[in-house]
Amino acid sequence: MVNPSGTPAYTEQEKSYWKSLAREYEAHLADMAKKHPPAAMLGVKSCVRCGHCCYTYVCIPRPEELPAIADYLKLTVAELVSKYMVADTEDCRTFFLRWAKHGEEDITGGRIPPIRTFDRGYCIFFDEKGGSCLIHPVRPQEAKYVKCWKTNNGRDRSQWGISGWTKEDIYRFIPDFDSHL
């Protein structure tokens, strides 16, 4: 069922299910932070290369950032999308591309199924052994903006990659994209 606004209308049982998944995922992230403390928890004022940000929240590149990243990897933008990205949504109206997580390679180049919203894993470009980003020189603006050691880090939504996407953008990169489940 869909509301007049175009967003899905969930039953109370469905809402309860999604809320329980979100709580479970938040608890998992808290456990991960204890195992691999980010700079803020350590009282450090610079990146400690723990990967917490790359695990907790995979950054979202803006559409205009994709060509430079593709060039860096010696790929076409279409190859970058099909190999490393998934289509996602925050509101079921505007879709965006984000980096897949390790373990989501089977769904790159398409829409992430809602049931996979809480997949666990680092950003596909995070090197766990080296504690580094494999595209660091061309990482998205959002990745440059996030600094876990700063108070109120990441609160300015205009700096988030998601703010750079419009309804039409997804079709530029995935022409046959189907927004319906």
Shape: globular
Q: What's the arrangement of strands in the largest beta sheet?
A: 1-2
Radius of gyration: 17 Å
Low-confidence stretches: none
Structural class: mainly alpha
Quick structural overview:
The chain has 181 residues and is mainly alpha-helical. It has helices at residues 12-35, 39-42, 52-56, 66-72, 77-84, 141-145, 169-173; strands at residues 85-89, 95-99, 126-127, 132-133. InterPro entries: Puta_zinc/iron-chelating_dom.
Layout: helices, strands, pairs:
Elements: H1 12-35, H2 39-42, H3 52-56, H4 66-72, H5 77-84, E1 85-89, E2 95-99, E3 126-127, E4 132-133, H6 141-145, H7 169-173
Antiparallel strand pairs: 1-2, 3-4
Q: How does this structure look, described?
A:
It is a single chain. The chain is mainly α and 181 residues long. It has one domain (12-173). It is 32% helix and 8% strand. It contains seven helices and four strands, in the order H-H-H-H-H-E-E-E-E-H-H. Strands 1-2 form a two-stranded antiparallel sheet. A two-stranded antiparallel sheet has the order 3-4. A hairpin with a 5-residue loop joins strand 1 (85-89) and strand 2. The longest helix is centred in the N-terminal third of the chain and has 24 residues, at 12-35. The protein is globular, with a radius of gyration of 17 Å. It starts with 11 loop residues before the first helix and ends in an 8-residue tail after the last helix. This is Reductive dehalogenase associated protein. InterPro entries: Puta_zinc/iron-chelating_dom. It comes from Dehalococcoides mccartyi (strain VS). Pfam families: CxxCxxCC.
